[in-house]
Design brief:
The structure holds 2 protein chains of 2 kinds. Chain A has 2 domains: 12-97, Orthogonal Bundle (Helicase, Ruva Protein, domain 3), CATH 1.10.8; 99-133. Helices cover 62% and strands 0% of the residues of chain A. Chain A contains 5 helices and no strands. The longest helix of chain A is centred in the C-terminal third of the chain and has 31 residues, at 105-135. Chain A is flat. The mean pLDDT of chain A is 81. Chain B is α/β, with parallel strands linked by helices. Chain B has 2 domains: 2-34; 53-187, Glutaredoxin. Chain B is built from 7 helices and 7 strands. In chain B, the strands form 2 sheets. A 5-stranded mixed sheet of chain B has the order 5-4-3-6-7. In chain B, strands 1-2 form a two-stranded antiparallel sheet. Chain B is elongated. The chains are: A mainly alpha, B alpha/beta.
Chain lengths: 144, 188
Amino acid sequence: MKRPLVVILVAVALALSTAAFAIDPLPFRSTAQRERFQHLTSELRCMVCQDESLLASNADFAKQLRRQIFDMMQQGKSDEQIKDWLVARYSTFILYDPPLAPSTLALWFGTPAILLSGGLVVVVLLRRRTRPAGSIAEDPGDDW
Amino acid sequence: MNEVARKPAARFVPLVVFAALVAFFVVGLVWNQTHDARFVPSPLIDKPAPAFRLPKLDRPTEFVTKADMLGKPYLLNVFASWCFACGDEHPVLMAYRDKFGIPLIGYDYKDAPKDARAWLQRHGDPYHEVVTDQSGDTALDFGVYGAPETYLIDAKGIIRYKHIGPLTPDVIAKELEPKIHALEQEGS
């Protein structure tokens, strides 16, 4: 009876291990460079697999772009230059962080705006509710 | 209770807010059903096609460059023998190759030339010329991220239209052919 459990555990462990990182043997110059690479590629969308970053994806497309990004880093390109290069080819869709642009205004400010207006409604309601009790003497004519 | 009684309209505020939320969700759902997020509009449209120099599939020592192709519009169809959707698209290309009125160039993407040759031999060759990009490096400049993809490039080497995914008779009639006709009008 124990065997199915072991099989399931092994399967889960295997699934987790492949999902963790797609590793290419890229010859980084330093730990700092590797960390920069991992940070940058984790912010980029793998276009063919959508819900994975370039860092995590095992797709051929992601491997090739990782290699390309690595090469550009070796050439001394900054993160911004690399992102511009990618956006010129694949549009801003490749960035997980959407840039602030007219088309993304709702995305950036929509939630705070809704939250603020909700807060305002609460404040107005609370004021209305407390005022009659405290101000009956001041303006008795406003009771209805 | 007084307040509500005083302003009957206020009673409907929650309902209106709820209806607005439902409307948002419905629009979102319908949008997702009808728009495949993978098919991102290419930022390269109306920009010059990247320079390329790629070997021909049947004569690997001869190359096709962007400069060679200037002067007349053409279609560049990215395919590969390993690409399933290209198999779906293939009969459409066979049927339309002579109806486009402009050359159809095959772009064999990250593929072994012998596999591509075998694939074309088995299914038929719809292309007027086939170039190969085994490393996929040139494809990076074209913003290729899957196959099949089809580019319409004009006589000046500008990318005028791109379709991601298999061409279908519907897409050809509604999108591609009007674009080709517009180019012909410009040219004359």
